């Protein structure tokens, strides 16, 4: 029997320097993909996978994320008085339940491994948990990425990362895994490396920013030396974890948008908007008109 996964960690402490000046006063996670903040899309994916509690690893100037996942009394009241019940219901449906969010601060930008370690007390030492990097949007018309990983977890237990192929000239930008069977949907991991120097990657399967981890990771992170880029790297502790417990890669077949990059952000806006019945057809016409110029 595997232990049920109830909690998800979302690291949202990053400064978003690639998006200045937009991110001077607004957290990058609150930039919108169509009309929903990036972080709301990721919470939606996690809720669809059965996550009940969201642990946000925040930093200075991130308070609006906390407000976003709370009731907004004045707004709700105004919508109610104006009879905008559909809008109000939609707002309320987006919220995790009362008590279903926790916020803790990373204090210093020491790396992803350090950010995850900051969740140790809230997760506790006997519950596996999900980890979602909010920059990375996993777009699919089928089952969500984390939901697929939950299926794999329920079959195999242990630890999981989502992976997808990247062009060979980009492997140095990501965590890369080697697997027993590159074609399989779920495969045992044989190798893991964070940001391998060009030409040294064990495959072109990159870690896409979705994880299911056992709490063993926290003890490993506590003693983790800085790695690539001088940061405390989650991948380095996952390598140590893979020597202790089973570790699987789950291939994600949808589209991944890195909304932390300008091209990824713009492409995500177009892809998500084209999917919408109320916007798609008209946007398609606008794009065609622009491309004809
Ligand atoms: C982090 C992880 C890396 C992963 C990537 C996905 O890197 O360390 O393994 O492939 O996220 O976006 P970062 O983007 O923080 O440099």
Automatic annotation (TrEMBL):
Keyword presence, Secreted: no
CDD domains cross-referenced by the UniProt entry: UGPase_prokaryotic
Top-level taxon in the UniProt lineage: Bacteria
GO biological process: UDP-alpha-D-glucose metabolic process
Catalytic activity: alpha-D-glucose 1-phosphate + UTP + H(+) = UDP-alpha-D-glucose + diphosphate
The entry's keywords: Nucleotidyltransferase, Transferase
SUPFAM superfamilies (alphabetical): Nucleotide-diphospho-sugar transferases (SSF53448)
Nucleotidyl transferase domain span: 8-271
InterPro entries: GalU_uridylyltTrfase_bac/arc, NTP_transferase_dom, Nucleotide-diphossugar_trans
Top EC class, one word: transferase
GO molecular function, one term: UTP:glucose-1-phosphate uridylyltransferase activity
Chain coiled-coil ranges: none
EC number assigned by the record: 2.7.7.9
Family: Belongs to the UDPGP type 2 family.
Full protein name: UTP--glucose-1-phosphate uridylyltransferase
């Amino acid at each position: 029997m595997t232990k049920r996964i109830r909690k998800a960690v979302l690291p949202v402490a990053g400064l978003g320097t690639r998006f200045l000046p937009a991110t001077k006063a607004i957290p990058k996670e609150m930039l919108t993909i169509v009309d929903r903040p990036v972080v709301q899309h990721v919470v939606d994916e996690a809720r669809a996978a059965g996550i009940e509690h969201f642990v946000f690893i925040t930093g200075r100037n991130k308070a609006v994320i906390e407000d976003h996942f709370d009731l907004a009394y004045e707004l709700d009241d105004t919508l109610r008085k104006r009879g905008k019940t559909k809008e109000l219901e939609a707002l309320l449906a987006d919220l995790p339940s009362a008590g279903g969010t926790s916020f803790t601060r990373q204090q210093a930008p020491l790396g992803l491994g350090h950010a995850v370690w900051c969740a140790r007390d809230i997760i506790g030492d006997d519950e596996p948990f999900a980890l979602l990097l909010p920059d990375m949007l996993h777009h699919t018309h089928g089952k969500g990425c984390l939901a697929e990983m939950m299926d794999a977890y329920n079959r195999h237990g242990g630890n999981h990362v989502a992976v997808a192929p990247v062009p060979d000239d980009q492997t140095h930008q990501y965590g890369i895994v080697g697997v027993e069977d590159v074609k399989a949907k779920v495969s045992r991991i044989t190798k893991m490396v964070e940001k391998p120097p060009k030409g040294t990657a064990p495959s072109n399967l990159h870690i896409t920013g979705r994880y299911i981890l056992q709490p063993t990771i926290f003890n490993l992170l506590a003693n983790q030396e800085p790695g690539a880029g001088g940061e405390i790297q989650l991948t380095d502790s996952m390598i140590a974890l893979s020597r202790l417990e089973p570790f699987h890669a789950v291939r994600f077949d949808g589209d991944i948008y890195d909304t932390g990059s300008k091209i990824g952000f713009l492409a995500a806006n177009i892809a998500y908007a084209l999917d919408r019945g109320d916007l798609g057809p008209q946007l398609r016409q606008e794009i065609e008109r622009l491309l004809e110029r």
